[in-house]
């Protein structure tokens, strides 16, 4: 059976659209193996959205590229299991994956100026995947490309087809990237920081546009971002990543109402709030992410954590099931008597990072 062939014939697949089990992606360097993704598991149903949240360097983008198989040919170790509609992707050659890229799963890359070809007209970039995957004429492909630009709310779509990316604004370039990703009607869409380079009003427009397209096409979506506020009302589930691992995962409402991981709390605290007074100092997470070649012993967030205790520095916590699909990786969870005691002990002794102690705990609730 070829990779693009439907193994189930005409019968619809009734399992999860995407099943990722203990996937690991390591990069070989002169310093040693960089453990960019270190044992991540998740599932995604058709029509649902999962938000992958974390700082730069936490492994979000590498996880998305690893699931799709968009990795360098050499110097990469990729293990685990990735199943799309029940079909295993680990071990499939890149030339065979082309049957899936664009047609079954697609990605909106972070920077449209570098992901779009600067010397290729917009229309040709959209019709390229259409002609590759769909048996249609050139005129039909052009008509479909025009309809796609219209569906992503680009004015004068016929005119834009003949323009180059540098002739468009940042927001319009991002809409073109969305049109390219949606051209063949994929079942799974990866959106890698799709609003990073855009101003706030355009960010909201692009996110609303993606949500509308998802509803119309009943797509599953993986929304990668560093901002918990972006996924607050747009994701069904949220997975928080740190040092290549998921440190907390829960349905969105559960996560904001009852977060357990201090790192999740720190991310939420770092979001500026409209009700803050002018010149209020922004909350930050002290320190920097760990070295993924030589990660620290115990909990990877321990050197930056206001709740840290001796046990955290010696023993790495496993994912704990809090029920209802809520998983977290912490010895002294936020909102528990143990966590409150650990925080108070550190405050009294001044033992945790000063900036973290000054921030204090956050109350649950959606930003």
Report on the structure:
By secondary structure, the protein is α/β, with parallel strands linked by helices. Among the domains are: 16-104 and 229-257, 3-Layer(aba) Sandwich (Rossmann fold); 258-272 and 283-359, no CATH class. Helices cover 33% and strands 21% of the residues. The chain is built from 14 helices and twelve strands. The strands form two sheets. An eight-stranded mixed β-sheet has the order 6-7-8-3-9-10-12-11, sandwiched between helices. Strand 1 (18-29) and strand 2 (32-44) form a beta hairpin. Helix 4 (122-133) packs across helix 5 and helix 7 packs parallel to helix 8. The chain starts with 17 loop residues before the first strand and ends in an 8-residue tail after the last helix. 40% of the residues are buried. Residues 1-10 and 354-367 have low confidence and may be disordered.
For this structure, the CATH topology of the domain at 16-104 and 229-257 is Rossmann fold
- Give the C-alpha Rg: 22 Å
The CA-CA distance between the termini, in Å, is: 48 Å
- Report the portion of residues in β strands: 15-25%
Mean pLDDT: 88
The major β-sheet equals:
8 strands, mixed
CATH homologous superfamily of the domain at 16-104 and 229-257 - what is it? Answer: P-loop containing nucleotide triphosphate hydrolases
Share of helix, binned: 25-40%
> Quick one: overall form?
globular
Strand order of the largest sheet: 6-7-8-3-9-10-12-11
In the CATH hierarchy, what is the architecture of the domain at 16-104 and 229-257 at level 2?
3-Layer(aba) Sandwich
Work out the number of β strands: 12
Number of helices: 14
Which regions have little confidence, pLDDT < 50, spanning 5+ residues? 1-10, 354-367
Query: What pattern of helices and strands is seen along the backbone?
Result: EEEHEEHEHHHHHEHEHEEHHHEEHH
Helix-and-strand structural type:
alpha/beta
Write down the CATH class of the domain at 16-104 and 229-257.
Alpha Beta
């Amino acid at each position: 059976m070829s990779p693009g062939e439907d193994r189930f014939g005409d019968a619809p697949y009734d399992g999860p659209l995407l099943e990722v089990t203990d996937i690991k992606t390591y990069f070989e360097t002169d310093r040693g193996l960089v453990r960019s993704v270190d044992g991540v598991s998740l599932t995604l149903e058709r029509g649902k959205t999962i938000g992958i949240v974390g700082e730069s360097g936490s492994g979000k983008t590498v996880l998305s590229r690893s699931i799709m198989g968009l990795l360098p040919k050499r110097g990469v170790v990729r293990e685990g299991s990735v199943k799309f509609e029940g079909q295993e992707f680990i071990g499939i050659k890149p030339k065979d994956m082309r049957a899936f890229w664009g047609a079954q799963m697609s990605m909106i890359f972070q920077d449209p100026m570098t992901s779009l070809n600067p010397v290729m007209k917009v229309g040709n970039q959209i019709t390229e995947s259409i002609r590759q995957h769909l048996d249609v004429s050139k005129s039909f492909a052009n008509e479909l490309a025009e309809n796609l630009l219209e569906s992503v709310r680009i004015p004068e779509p016929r005119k834009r087809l003949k323009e180059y990316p540098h002739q468009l604004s940042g927001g319009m370039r991002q809409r073109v990237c969305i049109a390219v990703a949606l051209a063949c009607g994929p079942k799974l869409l990866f959106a890698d920081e799709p609003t990073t380079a855009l101003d706030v009003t355009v960010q909201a427009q692009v996110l609303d546009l993606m949500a509308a397209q998802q509803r119309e096409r009943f797509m599953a979506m993986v929304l990668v971002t560093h901002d918990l506020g972006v996924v607050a009302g747009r994701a069904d589930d949220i997975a928080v990543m740190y040092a290549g691992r998921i440190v907390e995962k829960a349905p969105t409402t559960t996560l904001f109402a009852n977060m357990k991981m201090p790192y999740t709390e720190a991310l939420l605290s770092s979001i500026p709030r409209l009700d803050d007074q002018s010149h209020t100092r922004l909350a930050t997470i002290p320190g920097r992410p760990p070295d993924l070649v030589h990660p620290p012993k115990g909990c990877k967030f321990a050197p930056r954590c206001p709740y840290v205790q001796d046990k955290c520095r010696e023993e790495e916590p496993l994912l704990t099931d809090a029920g209802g699909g809520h998983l977290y990786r912490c010895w002294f969870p936020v909102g528990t008597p143990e966590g409150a005691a650990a925080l108070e002990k550190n405050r009294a002794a001044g033992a945790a990072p000063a900036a973290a102690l000054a921030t204090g705990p956050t109350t649950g609730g959606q930003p």
